[in-house]
Amino acid sequence: MPNKNSDSARKRSYAFLGPAGTFTELAVKQINQAKGASLISVNHVSEAIDLVVSGKVSRAVVPVENSIEGGVSATLDALAGTELIRIYGEYLVPVTFNLVAKPGTKLSNVKTVATHPVAYAQSRKWLLEKLPGHVHLPTTSTASAAKDLLESSYADAAIAAPSIINHFKLTTLAKNIGENKQAQTRFIQIGLAGDLSKPTGADKTSVIVELPTDRPGSLLEMLEQFATRGVNLTRIESRPIGDRLGRYRFNIDAEGHVLDESVGEALAGLHRFSPKVSFLGSYPRADKQQTAPSGNNSNGQYGEAKKWLDAIRKAR
Amino acid sequence: MPNKNSDSARKRSYAFLGPAGTFTELAVKQINQAKGASLISVNHVSEAIDLVVSGKVSRAVVPVENSIEGGVSATLDALAGTELIRIYGEYLVPVTFNLVAKPGTKLSNVKTVATHPVAYAQSRKWLLEKLPGHVHLPTTSTASAAKDLLESSYADAAIAAPSIINHFKLTTLAKNIGENKQAQTRFIQIGLAGDLSKPTGADKTSVIVELPTDRPGSLLEMLEQFATRGVNLTRIESRPIGDRLGRYRFNIDAEGHVLDESVGEALAGLHRFSPKVSFLGSYPRADKQQTAPSGNNSNGQYGEAKKWLDAIRKAR
Amino acid sequence: MPNKNSDSARKRSYAFLGPAGTFTELAVKQINQAKGASLISVNHVSEAIDLVVSGKVSRAVVPVENSIEGGVSATLDALAGTELIRIYGEYLVPVTFNLVAKPGTKLSNVKTVATHPVAYAQSRKWLLEKLPGHVHLPTTSTASAAKDLLESSYADAAIAAPSIINHFKLTTLAKNIGENKQAQTRFIQIGLAGDLSKPTGADKTSVIVELPTDRPGSLLEMLEQFATRGVNLTRIESRPIGDRLGRYRFNIDAEGHVLDESVGEALAGLHRFSPKVSFLGSYPRADKQQTAPSGNNSNGQYGEAKKWLDAIRKAR
Amino acid sequence: MPNKNSDSARKRSYAFLGPAGTFTELAVKQINQAKGASLISVNHVSEAIDLVVSGKVSRAVVPVENSIEGGVSATLDALAGTELIRIYGEYLVPVTFNLVAKPGTKLSNVKTVATHPVAYAQSRKWLLEKLPGHVHLPTTSTASAAKDLLESSYADAAIAAPSIINHFKLTTLAKNIGENKQAQTRFIQIGLAGDLSKPTGADKTSVIVELPTDRPGSLLEMLEQFATRGVNLTRIESRPIGDRLGRYRFNIDAEGHVLDESVGEALAGLHRFSPKVSFLGSYPRADKQQTAPSGNNSNGQYGEAKKWLDAIRKAR
Q1: Domain C1-95+181-194, CATH homologous superfamily name and number
Q2: C268–D195 CB contact, under 8 Å
Q3: Cα(A243)–Cα(A245) distance, rounded to whole angstroms?
Q4: What is the value of ipTM here, to two decimals?
Q5: What's the CA gap between D228 and A70, in Å, rounded?
Q6: Distance between CA A178 and CA A181 in Å, rounded?
Q7: Alpha carbon B214 to its chain's center
Q8: Which of the following CATH numbers is that of domain B196-316: 3.30.70.260, 3.40.920.10, 3.30.200.20, 3.30.70.3040?
Q9: What are the residue boundaries of the ACT domain, all occurrences included (chains A, B, C, D) (predicted)?
């Protein structure tokens, strides 16, 4: 069956946190436009972003938040470091961990387990019970832990996504060993700032806002910029600005699209309030939950209020 | 000395709460454009407003607030009853009460004292001490109490403004008998809705806002429409909507001019929030205190935020 | 039928805004404990309060709010003027106005109409239609207007409560001439500060709060003292403090009883926040609507939070 | 010079993120009572906490926040996982990174660099410039990276604290290679829940608060629990609750001590508001900045408000 996106896809390229077999690759597979595109595996979020900024890839897919480990600092900080990129989509990937090893390995012989620290933290309970004397060898990704089993590693087993055995000649020793069976990771698709995504009625808008430091209560004031316009937040996460302790910026996901009047006015309010605010993008929600502003905060109500105000102001 | 406003003033006419000698007349005398204009004395605020609405007078001057007695209900309710009028100015008049009588009257012979209930309340302490057995005869104004002494009244004395003796052949029996020596009344100049007053940098904006009744906390929400835009209120006064107990509208005076971005956005916010909001006018403050929005809420900051938002939105 | 309250009632006395036939007397009749008590008619709210403060009467019944005219300034200011009194109950009286006259009077002959200014304002529309050339004679109460018809007045008719004809030999010329047919007045029962009314689960708490004047946004802060504890307001009304324009105190009715933890904490918060706060009383609501705090703000939740905090604090 | 804490210190033991030479050990050295105590090196925050909970050590010292990398998830999550522990102190350690190697190693020969991912991120810019083709080998601490150089590692150099050369026979190849020269890490001292630290007038109080999920705006409501009592926050950091995306708890540091009335009332308010709130401790600030509540929120003002309320409530 010919892919209708195939022509444009051929010209498209997607950087992702590799190697093949990572959870990030599973996120890329959810993207329709990525079918048939070339996939570029990188080792670090900042590499992925650099490739986007320099125009060497069309898009990058990176993890932004995990339901257990929280925000991915590398991604949040990379987003804060440039004004040139935008978020164009988000994707949810269930996080399931299997213990894999070279064919012939027995569970009872496993002494050293390689994996990414996050995967290790989630599997630690199972490991303490089943492999009480094990040693952890940290790696930069779950897939590289698996790959290294066949190459350079002195580890006996690796913790990785179930699909890893499609990529490497490995055996599964134990399935679903993570503590939380509903764990998910949220990934975002990043590209150069360009066309706005079209509003779908089920959108999210992401911004980074620095708090003014000269007065207490400024977080409350910032949240009121949203509340007064009836804009709900789905996530708020603090990150250090980095110059000294006690100074924070906030990564915020809000319901709605920047073309919605309520969201636009809230963002303009943030711009006045904050020493620095970065617009990261408006894009369709992964869960497709409707979030178009309604009631007092609908575009219709904004339009009527504007008409009313304009009539008053024009009386001169 | 020829009055430079005289030509246009000749065509102008001002209704005021009369008769001659009332505090309202003192307010009219503060208005430059009223010099040489014809002054129409009326008995009731609603008469004054009716004359404006019907075009029979150019302007009306009515009391809106007294530092002791509070808001003047008749004025507040008249303002709420029509969308056709606007406030064009405010004037402060010190309120001093004298006891006056027909020439020859002695204080010791005064048994019945005529005056408006508000003047009576403010003079009651003095009267109880000096004229313990007196009877109060309520009248519709202090000036009519004085005027009636010479005509129809069976009162022995009247309480009125000091200047009343310029209008009627009366003697002053006691000066400054009001309890509060700093008492002031605030008057407003009302005209048909027309040209906006030009911003002066020291302006007030008045609105009437009905609260939605379907949820608690709506007054707080309404105030946040101002606070989020940094607009300060100088007065807020509740009045019953009138259909049943427990439903209120609020008369609000805010600092700034409707042409200020912060004030305009707050008003548009009220329009979305409230089942009914009436714009009463933007006009120069009597105390000339500067109130142009500044800092995060200056027109400059609004302009920059708008430019920033427009650039984001145009990216499509 | 013997009244079970008769013995104690005999010793009880109630001051009310008289004379007999006023709406205030109708409020007194709603009070069980007032049955058989002696009723003392007074002309002014401050007289009624003075009688309570001096111990000459047990209680006073005065109007506090009208669904059309709003707050009764004399009552609100009298409440603010002393710390010695409390509100012990509230009563709603429908306000219906009839036009009455001496027997034999014809409507077509009525030229002068006596009544209280509030009653006049509510009947003005009817009068302008039916008696276009009439003159208004203001009186201190509707009942005194009626009474004076038989005594001193030169008025031809009076506007008063329908029940006025039970007290004076008068005829009804027109019924229910008020503009708003659902008009109500709320009355309160005032006594010396003494025992708290027992909580009924359907209570109101009244306070007077002065706003600090040194900063904008203080009204918002004051309302947050209630909102943070989940206490709803049923009424908020500003009154001038009286020393100069721009300084206000607020008369507030809140849902719940001062013995409720949420209400108590809100009041203590006001005490810290405000330069002056007066507790006027907790008393059963006239409409018997349940208002006991619930959910997060129930007394049970407050108790558990206190227990939790005490355990933390005792760890030393 | 004999240490006056030596006797009790002998019985004391401190677990810290080791091995010797980590930044955590530098934090331990700031603690007076730790002088002469036995220091137990552990590999993981959760091990340190487990030793405290089981009573095997008196205290543990762990990093909680870095000025560049942000909150230390392992610590934040360990604190959320038990009610048995408290924070007893905080310590600031400047974070400076040196590149170290076995004696004889030349910078030009370094191909593989071992260090903790956080140290790597902060040194990456320097490494890309000076060692463009290097490979990163992640380790569980900077000190273990250094230690491993002499033992098991195939790395050529390690990034660690300057003081690392006091512990291992290593040479410094480059000094202060971190990107941010003012970087700091904040450490906390953890013990079993027991005696409260005495208020010093310069204290912090730490709590973890889960947000109710059933309504938008709950973060704003939570912050108002602090704001209404005038309690300032110095840090707020979200962490996932872990069961699914979109559910957060907040780690909060507030100014003041739980024995301060304002802080206590705010905490009790959180207890009512939140499905789960954990008190982590009140302890002296590392920066010794005075934070005792003052003005309207001082203990004196709280005391007066309570006295006033009690007097009202006792009237029965």
Answers
A1: Periplasmic binding protein-like II (3.40.190.10)
A2: no
A3: 7
A4: 0.87
A5: 30
A6: 7
A7: 31
A8: 3.30.70.260
A9: 207-284
Gap between the Cα atoms of B140 and B18, Å rounded: 10
Q: Report d(CA A25, CA A141) in Å as an integer.
A: 12
Token pair recorded at residue A61: 């897919």
Local confidence band at B214 (pLDDT 50, 70, 90 cut-offs): low
Secondary-structure class of domain D12-94+184-194 per CATH: alpha beta
Neighbours of D55 (CB within 10 A): 8
pLDDT digits (tens, 9 = 90+) for C241-288: 887 788 889 999 999 999 999 999 999 999 999 989 999 999 999 999
Q: Are the CB atoms for B259 and B196 separated by under 8 Å?
A: yes
Nearest CA in chain A to D183: A244
Q: Which CATH number fits domain D98-174: 3.40.190.10, 3.40.1190.20, 3.90.550.10, 1.10.1240.10?
A: 3.40.190.10
DSSP type of residue C81:
T
**CB pair distance less than 8 Å for C184 and B66:** no
pTM of the model: 0.89
Rg (CA), chain C: 23
Contacts of C297 in chain D (CB under 8 A): 272
Using CB atoms, which chains have 3+ pairs under 8 A with B? A, C
Q: What's the rounded Cα separation, in Å, for the pair C239 and B69? A: 8
For residue A232, give the chain D residue with the closest CA. D216
**Chain D residue whose CA is closest to C276:** D305
Single-letter code of the amino acid located at B71: G
pLDDT tens per residue, range A253-263: 999 999 999 99
Positive or negative torsion for Cα C84, C90, C91, C97: positive
Bridge partner residues of C235 (DSSP): C253
Residue type present at position D63: P
**Contact call for B219 and C234, based on CB within 8 A:** no
- The answer to whether C46 touches C19, Cβ cutoff 8 Å, is no
Chain D residues whose CB is inside 8 A of the A81 CB are none
The pLDDT tens digits of the residues spanning C149-205 come to: 998 778 999 999 999 999 999 999 999 999 988 889 999 999 999 889 999 999 999
CB contact under 8 A, D245 and A65: yes
Question: β-strands D248-255, D233-240: how paired?
Answer: antiparallel
**Which of A180, A244, A246 lies at the smallest CB-CB distance from D234?**
A246
User: Of D226, A224, D211, nearest to C228 (Cα)?
Assistant: D226
What b/e sequence results for D129-140 when a residue is b if at least 16 CB atoms lie within 10 Å of its CB, and e otherwise? ebbeebebbbbb
**Range(s) for CATH 3.30.70.260 in chain C?**
196-316
Beta C70-71 vs C59-66: how paired, if at all?
antiparallel
Q: Find the angle CA(D125)-CA(D127)-CA(D130) to the nearest 5 degrees.
A: 110
The identity of residue A234, as a single letter, is T
Least Cα distance to D265 among B55, C165, C269 occurs for C269
Look at residues A252, A264, A250 and name the one whose alpha carbon lies nearest to residue A293. Answer: A264
Whether there are 3 or more C-beta pairs closer than 8 Å between C and A is: no
Taking an 8 Å cut-off on Cβ atoms, the answer to whether D268 and C316 are in contact is no
Token pair of D40 as six digits: 């137990």
Counting CB pairs under 8 A, whether chains C and D reach 3 or more, is: yes
Least CB–CB distance from D220: residue in A73, A180, A224 = A224
The phi and psi torsions of D169 (rounded to 5 degrees) equal -80, 80
**C69/B216 CB distance under 8 A:** no
Task: Note whether C308 contacts D272, CB cutoff 8 Å.
Answer: no
Domain with CATH 3.40.190.10 in chain B: 1-95+181-194, 98-174
